[in-house]
Design a protein that fits this description.
Layout: E1 15-26, E2 29-41, E3 46-50, H1 57-65, E4 74-82, E5 85-86, H2 92-95, E6 103-106, H3 110-113, H4 120-132, H5 136-149, H6 155-158, H7 168-180, E7 186-190, H8 198-215, E8 218-223, H9 226-230, E9 235-240, E10 243-249, H10 250-255, H11 260-267, E11 318-319, E12 326-327, H12 336-348, H13 353-361
Parallel strand pairs: 3-8, 3-9, 6-7, 7-8
Antiparallel strand pairs: 1-2, 1-4, 4-5, 9-10, 10-12, 11-12
Helix pairs in contact: 4-5, 5-7, 7-8
């Protein structure tokens, strides 16, 4: 069975997202979850999408895949193109043809993404028979091969087991195998290692990388942890309050951070060098209430460099000397404007400048 996209790869990005918005109507009001995000991804490339809980990164990835329906209390607008074809306007029935064969997702908790009352083998064969038109025997043989490829021991026996009979790391390997069953060209990893210990996290991330290289597959890693994507992504998009606030090649982002929020995330990472038993540097304050988005830069109430302009004007994504490096900040870190803003706030005796400036303006 042929995939919905063309058999011959075209030139240009595999995935293009333009001016993408997601809104949810709730009993308390409308939640502005994703606000005008644009991004692209090439075949075989890895993009890390990073941000705190509530930044919109998970909603973005699921909505791009079409898992957040438009209608009723959900409102999704913008354009999504996969291999040059617009898929954001497809019906749910047509979009299902893309799930598994073109795009797939590995979710955060395998115990909620796997059916607890079905044997693992059956959860493989359903997708294989539906998308690839395999016989039951052929699908079972492929399921065994997939389990072997993701490192499940004794795969012939594993197909007959239930999810609760596997450890957390092994369950996540199973979900990766299911996601890869129909050879998707794009894989979303939605916090795929959050529920696992550090050693198992590294094993799962290594597994994803191996599978990506073998299949020439594009990968989007969604995470709250910059350390997860630092050595495993080609580019990073940092999200805050439903927006991309900085995006750059990974090495550039760490070497020449411009957005204060990105700087704060980096500063919050634990260090292997230096003194032990030191408190991590938490970001002061809380993310904004997306039912009542703030005026101006959404990070300004928590930003140590915020000025009056930050509270009333929303900064657009602006390019630096590197056209691949964009950031949304009026006072980018490391620039003369940033130095002035930092020194001005230091003189005022402010540590979280935005809050103090609001008081002064009132």
């Amino acid at each position: 069975m042929k995939s919905p996209s063309s058999a011959t790869p075209r030139e240009g990005p595999l995935l293009e997202v333009e001016d993408f918005y997601v809104r949810f109507d709730t009993d308390r009001g409308r939640v502005h979850a994703v606000n005008g995000v644009s991004l692209s991804l090439d075949q075989g490339e890895t993009l890390g999408i990073v941000g705190e809980s509530g930044s919109g990164k998970t909603v973005l990835s699921r909505a791009v895949m079409g898992l957040v329906g438009d209608g009723g209390r959900n409102h999704v607008t913008g354009t999504v193109r996969f291999d040059g074809r617009e898929i954001s306007s497809l019906s749910p029935r047509d979009l299902r043809k893309y799930w598994g064969t073109e795009m797939a997702m590995v979710f955060q908790d395998p115990m909620t993404s796997l059916n607890p009352v079905k044997r693992v083998g059956a959860q493989f064969t359903e997708a294989l028979r539906y998308h690839l038109d395999l016989s039951r025997r052929e699908a079972t043989e492929r399921a065994v091969d997939l389990l072997r490829s993701v490192g499940i021991p004794e795969p012939q026996r594993a197909v007959g087991r239930y999810p609760h009979e596997f450890s957390g790391g092994m369950r996540q390997r199973v979900t990766i195998g299911i996601a890869l069953a129909c050879n998707p060209r794009l894989l979303f990893g939605d916090e795929p290692t959050t529920a696992l210990d550090v050693t198992v996290q590294a094993q799962i991330l290594d597994l994803l990388k191996v599978q990506q290289v073998e299949r020439d597959m594009a990968l989007i890693l969604v995470t709250h942890d910059l350390a997860v994507v630092r050595g495993r992504s080609d580019r990073i998009a940092v999200m805050y309050a439903g927006k991309v606030v900085e995006t750059a090649p990974t090495a550039t982002l760490f070497a020449h951070t411009r957005m204060p929020y990105t700087e704060a995330l980096i500063n919050a990472l634990p260090r292997l060098t230096g003194p032990t038993h030191v408190r991590l540097r938490a970001i002061p304050g809380r993310p904004p209430d997306m039912m009542n988005p703030p005026d101006g830069c959404p990070f300004s109430p928590r930003c140590p460099y915020a000025q009056e302009r930050c509270l009333v004007e929303v900064p657009p994504l602006m390019p630096s000397e590197d056209p691949e490096h964009q950031f949304a900040c009026w006072y980018p870190v490391g620039t003369p404007e940033w130095t002035e803003a930092r020194d001005r706030n230091t003189h005022r005796g402010e540590t979280a400048a935005g809050t103090q400036i609001v008081k002064e303006m009132v």
